[in-house]
């Protein structure tokens, strides 16, 4: 079974621009979560989508948004990019339930975003 | 939010048992404890998850005392390939995403 895929793997943008990242979950997984990873802040939860609906949300500004399609693929959008948005953006999928507590997630390789 | 604290780094040798402890003093009643492993340029990989007492799978054990204010990931007989960053995660997506708190990670280095 293919793993979680993310595109693109690397991206360079300038301040003020917007960016869209894509994630394809493992086949059959309906939940997709997004995370931001930086050296300073570590791994931070952005949001989770399940059956095209945002189900959980972390503490990020409204510039960070996402959506999920009927085939469970998900996109994340960041508008008005700031230098501090430079990070590795990780997508994770899980099967229904995800184990008790819901934390058995499968991560993709990430998209490395650099904002200049 | 549950704040987690882990050692920044640990060193070990092949064949030894490694125990990494995570402190989470204000863990909530519904929170689970999960550990992930991450190699450079890769996403984290699920290792083990538990709520209380002891959980064991084919790669690790997780020990959680009765007060649940800490947890210990135990890796038996580590090898060079276990060199990675290990993250403790407290909370749970089913309990509300805004309660997910990752630890700062422990860099484990295994040598011959």
Structure notes:
The complex is a heterodimer of chains A (116) and B (112). Chain A has 116 residues and is mainly β. In chain A, 0% of the residues lie in helices and 52% in strands. Chain A is built from no helices and 11 strands. In chain A, strands 2, 4, 5, 6, 9, 10 and 11 form a 7-stranded mixed β-sheet that branches. In chain A, strands 1-3-8-7 form a 4-stranded antiparallel β-sheet, with no helix packed on it. Chain B is 0% helix and 48% strand. In chain B, the strands form 2 sheets. In chain B, strands 1, 3, 4, 8, 9 and 10 form a 6-stranded mixed β-sheet that branches. Chain B has a 4-stranded antiparallel β-sheet with strand order 2-7-6-5, with no helix packed on it. Chain B is globular. The model of chain B has no long low-confidence stretch (mean pLDDT 89). Chains A and B meet through strand 5, strand 6, strand 9 and strand 10 of A and strand 4 and strand 8 of B.
Give the N-terminus to C-terminus distance of chain A in angstroms: 37 Å
The low-pLDDT segments of chain A are none
The run of helices and strands of chain A is EEEEEEEEEEE
Shape of chain A: globular
Mean pLDDT of chain A: 91
Give the count of helical stretches of chain A. 0
Rg on CA atoms of chain B, Å: 13 Å
The percentage helix of chain B is: under 10%
Sheet with most strands of chain A:
7 strands, mixed
Strand content of chain B: over 45%
Q: Work out the strand percent of chain A.
A: over 45%
Instruction: Output the radius of gyration of chain A.
Output: 13 Å
